[in-house]
Design goal:
The structure is a homodimer of 306-residue chains. By secondary structure, chain A is α/β, with parallel strands linked by helices. Chain A is built from ten helices and 13 strands. The longest helix of chain A has 18 residues. The N and C termini of chain A lie far apart (45 Å).
Chain lengths: 306, 306
């Protein structure tokens, strides 16, 4: 089944202890699409300035990613410039230029309105609502957000949550949204506000899937070399939703597999600058990495102390 | 098979957002024993002052924990006083009084010398070596350490590692010991210095077992109420080694089960002050909590993208 993402299409200039890159493809919709398109078709809604290297976007799995919902406007593209600490554990934003993204008003091509799976990337909650108002009864709506919106537009974000099945947030954002530092209580708080499940992203520590009365944990893939953490969360979302859209399986078991696909995509994203970590991933190498999660977490507990 | 622990036997005065306790049973050997004795017999080597409430120690599963290696000396017992932040994520040491622990020279009762499983709690590496020199070819030696020894006695600690099978450290200690912020590379660094495996404790994020060429991950049990994190790491060690000593099973599968037992014991430790979280744990409730780890991490990956 098809999958729609609405989010930023940006140009990132990043400095890590291992190198620098200028004006590389970035933004939530780009990372999401690079990941999800390994699992099935993706439709993108966004905006770019007249300076955006659109031809580079179109080289990301042509025919699998549909960029026709990305509007090109006169003006500059959204640019972000950041620098990571020596151990990649924190980053500093050096510059943010919204450009045409400041006036982004998502407008869905009519052919996108019936897309069954939707990911609302981290944009203004009012825009997230406007996207939902343009859609016809999607099968699953997921959304992300960030501290900026939690602080400035919490009532609107709570309106979004009422119409969302799956909230994906990192742990600090979840703590801020709920006002509770315990992630499990915070997850339960969210479940009382609309979503049927919460995916808590915890960076190098992995991610949690919190559903009513149960929790599933997936670790981050153990990497000895992490090159650039930018986009790991959006790539996780792309793997998670890409798998759900591919299979349509929203059972507990299907959601667990989707979590593993999310963790796998996160591990590709951080291996290189921009979306280069997805280059050369084949169905066989993807299957191999998925299988390695079995080794990483499998334990037979029958009769442990019996 | 029997299990020996050498470590601190202390009195802790702790303040958390939920309450305070004064002169409660604490110290690495006490938490370790409270946990490990749920799985089998434990022998303790340590020192207390003449003011220590020894009768309270002896009420911890009488007949299962052997306290005859705990020497009573004239003087004050080791006391630690600390305060946790509102979200329990950090703590401040308000006072440390070593008392008789400052002159601790572990002396093993002759009947302890042939104990097959040994845990060297976080004490001076020179004392850890002296314990090993008093032992007869143990089947498995595990040890812990801390930043203080890494900074002040690294050469001696590296001598200890040459004689240790399993190193248990928290992630910040592992980073400091190896000089590498990537825990997977840091783990491999340790494997080149003696130990056959490293257990990396990561608090609320769980723990990693790093062996040559493979890694296993166990999450922390999802708790909506964490009362006092003190002793979680030593309780993890008690569960891990208690399980290995109980079964003698050092296979990869046995080590994974031991990791789950460690995580279970950590979850009991943090539920109440001191070792009260272990009160009332029965074989049935223990088995129940172990089984809940299956639900928390199990995923069937066969044919995920096939």
């Amino acid at each position: 089944m098809s999958l729609l993402v609405v989010g930023s299409v940006a140009l990132d200039s990043i400095s890590t202890p291992f190198g620098e890159v200028t004006d590389a493809l970035g933004g939530s919709a780009v990372y999401f699409s690079a990941a999800a398109s390994l699992l099935g078709p993706v439709r993108v809604v966004g905006v770019v300035g007249s300076d955006y290297p659109v031809a580079q976007l179109q080289r990301i799995r042509p025919g699998v990613v549909d960029w026709s919902g990305v509007e090109s406007q006169k003006g500059e593209s959204f640019r972000w410039r950041g620098k990571y600490s020596f151990d990649l554990s924190s980053r500093e934003t050096l510059d943010t230029r919204l450009g045409v993204f400041a006036n982004f008003r998502p407008s869905l091509p009519p052919s996108f309105a019936a897309t069954p799976f939707v990911f609302l990337g981290n944009i203004d909650p009012e825009l997230q609502l406007s996207v939902l108002n343009q859609m016809q009864r999607p099968k699953l709506v997921a959304c992300d957000s960030m501290n900026y919106w939690i602080e400035s537009k919490k009532p609107q974000l709570l309106e979004v949550l009422k119409r969302v099945d799956t909230l994906l947030l990192n742990d600090s954002e979840l703590r801020e949204l709920s006002g509770d530092w315990n992630v499990h209580r915070a997850g339960r708080w969210v479940l009382g506000r609309g979503p049927r499940r919460v995916v808590v992203k915890r960076g190098e520590y992995g991610a949690l899937l919190i559903e009513p009365g149960k929790t599933f944990f997936v670790p981050a893939f153990p990497l000895e070399e992490v090159f650039d953490p930018t986009g790991a969360g959006d790539s996780f979302a792309g793997g998670f939703l890409g798998y759900l859209a591919r299979t349509g399986d929203l059972s507990s078991e299907g959601l667990r597999r989707a979590m593993v696909c999310g963790a796998v995509m996160g591990s590709y994203a951080v291996a290189k600058f921009s979306i280069s970590g997805f280059d050369g991933v084949t169905p066989a190498s993807l299957q191999q990495r998925i299988a390695e999660f079995h080794e990483l977490t499998h334990v037979d507990l029958a009769g442990t102390i019996g």
